[in-house]
Sequence to fold (90 residues):
Amino acid sequence: NRTDKIKIAERAILRISPEAKILTAKAKWQECIAQPVFQKSKIILSGLDDFATRVQLEAFARKHKIPLIDIGLTVKKDSNYHMMGQVVLS
Fold:
């Protein structure tokens, strides 16, 4: 059973702040920026899968002065599972 990371993040945020207004988009971030609500966000939480799009989103967030929290994580399996990652605030 695979749960999308966007749903996991939404659940975690609502546990911390049940009144939070969350806009989720399982799409390319470039397709979302036309929405005025996206440009007026108070914070962007990113879980993008490649470095190039992370760089582009960071540039967008800086331009619009929106804090961006990017979470990168890799799970590898050999005889055990290993998780490696990073959290970066821009």
DSSP finds four helices and three strands in the chain. Residues 25 and 31 are 9 Å apart (CA to CA).
